[in-house]
Amino acid sequence: MNRLPLFCDVAMARRIERVEAQLMAAATQAACLRRADRGGFVMRVAGGVATFAEDGSPFDKIAGLGFDGTPDAAVLDRIERAFAERGAPVQAEVSELADPAVGALLTDRGYWLASFENVLGLTLDGGYERVAFPGIEVRVGRDDEFEAWLDAVVEGFAHPDDQGVPSHEEFPRHVLANAERDFAAAGVVHYIALCDGTVAGGGSLRIADGVAQLTGAATAPAYRRRGVQTALLSARLADAAAAGCDIAVVTTQPGSKSQQNVQRRGFHLLYSRSVLVKQAPAEGAVNRRDASTTDHVTRKVRGPGTETPDALRVVQYDGSREKLRPLFELAEDSPTQLDGYIEDGRVLVALRGTDMVGHLQLVATDQPDIFEIKNMAVREDLQRTGVGKRLVDCAIDLVARESGRRLLVATAAADIGNLRFYQRQGFRMRTVERDAFTLRTGYEPGTVIEGIELRDRVWLDHLLDRPAPS
């Protein structure tokens, strides 16, 4: 069926931006219910919405501005304070069809242009027929298929096409998993694509106000160039048309393969959005990670994790722990002990450029408000340069924001350097565990550190101030 090019005026852009803002609000509210805490927020602002779901979430932004007047300065002050209190930057996504005064206002307030994204649309008037593709099955995913669906989508996102403008952000698996669950609670439907019976990709669909929002589509690299995305697109468009939608929209990176694919299916460029970012104050800043950084790291850890003048930054790590084993081994003399805990908890890594120069492993204990630094090390050529302090500061900030009350760490009594380091970071000695390092526990006898035999372990703790509730 031949379709006329879709012209987008201000009224249509207002409609699309309104449903986008509604989606961000609904997904953020779902995240708040899932987390059962008071950390998130939804604030209305000049026809749009400011939302914060959780650390590093794709829902942390301002959407829909510029179609109902300019934001009041006092309201923006309150929004910016709310993000800063959570150690996050403010990201405003503003349509080029919005009131130009909004862009001028934000740039005057210190926002800078970080990226663009394109919004494309297709008219569904008159219906849309589903097209069958040999060997490919597309259907709504079942609850028990969510993990397989997520694996395929995350793998696809982890290997983006190299065409067009690269994205300014990237999300690890656990963040995407949370976001997709929250999307489902907000009415987003997941579609799964199977190629010869194997999960090959996925996409999502949300319907609101006659607008079909196509989101989260990706194909595992092994199944690309087989028509998987075309099949996913066809199925979702057919279902959207059957549900009475008159327009379908999709957001892509400018000039990307994704944009090329949907344009081949009849979509037309409606408008672009400018992604404007204002950094949080230095005490609580967090920058979205450079998309070129490898090994599946998340957005920067908030608070002390902001980039320093020497280009050091701290991020959560979501890749293979084996890649970090050389760093772990700097702090652990027993291979047996290391094998037993290397996969535990979360890991923060210190990056200089794309080089990992240090790490800190943070694990939970049997008490929900007490956490432990299980392993921490800095590359030997960069020790005593502030990297370790940076990692500990970020761990303290992260634990405090998760309502942690106490942070523990254990080190050898023979390691005078470590004892000095942790006490300088505010830790105090708590107990001594005699004969902790023996052959029975996996340590070679006769090991000497700074002229002292490795025998006893010292436990230290740091009492944390909880952030004030918002």
TrEMBL record:
Gene3D superfamilies to which the protein is assigned, alphabetical: 3.40.630.30
Record flagged with keyword Secreted: no
- Spell out the residue ranges making up region: Disordered: 282-308
Q: Which SUPFAM superfamilies match?
A: Acyl-CoA N-acyltransferases (Nat)
Task: Please list the residue ranges annotated as the N-acetyltransferase domain.
Answer: 136-283, 312-455
* Coiled-coil regions, chain positions: none
Q: Write down the InterPro entries for this protein, in alphabetical order.
A: Acyl_CoA_acyltransferase, GNAT_dom, NAT_camello-type
Query: Which key words tag this protein in UniProt?
Result: Transferase
Indicate, by first and last residue, each region the UniProt record lists as having compositional bias (Basic and acidic residues). 286-298
Tell me the domain of life.
Bacteria
Identify this protein by name: N-acetyltransferase domain-containing protein
Q: Which source organism does the UniProt entry give?
A: Streptomyces coacervatus
